[in-house]
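Narrative of accomplishments. A recurring question from our advisory board has been how the design workflow behaves on a single, concrete structure rather than in aggregate. To address it, we present the structure tokens for one chain from the evaluation set, followed by the sequence designed for it. No filtering or post-editing was applied between the two.
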């Protein structure tokens, strides 16, 4: 007699795991919107007639983007680690019998 076929499946995430997943994707969206928003907010001032305003806008934009580029990978690593840690456990279950197999 042949050995039964086993399927590897994952359990559902817990409530905390689902919250962590939403926080992870919300953080990614927030960082993307923050980066694009900074570029969109600073660009009109960079092309202005006053060189001091343009320089200040450039420095602000560089600091804001630099801060986001530091926070993004750190937050991704922390939340990504939590995301992996809160996955459902793996289970091996017997495969359902298909119709027509004898």
């Amino acid at each position: 007699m042949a050995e039964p076929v086993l399927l590897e499946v994952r359990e559902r995430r817990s409530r905390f795991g689902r919250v962590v997943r939403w926080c992870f994707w919300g953080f990614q969206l927030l960082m993307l919107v923050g980066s694009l928003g900074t570029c969109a907010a600073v660009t009109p001032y960079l092309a202005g007639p006053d060189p001091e305003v343009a320089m200040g806008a450039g420095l602000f934009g560089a600091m804001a983007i630099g801060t986001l580029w530091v926070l993004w990978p750190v937050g991704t690593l922390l939340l990504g680690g939590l995301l992996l840690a809160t996955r459902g456990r793996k289970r091996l279950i017997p495969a359902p019998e298909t119709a027509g197999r004898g």
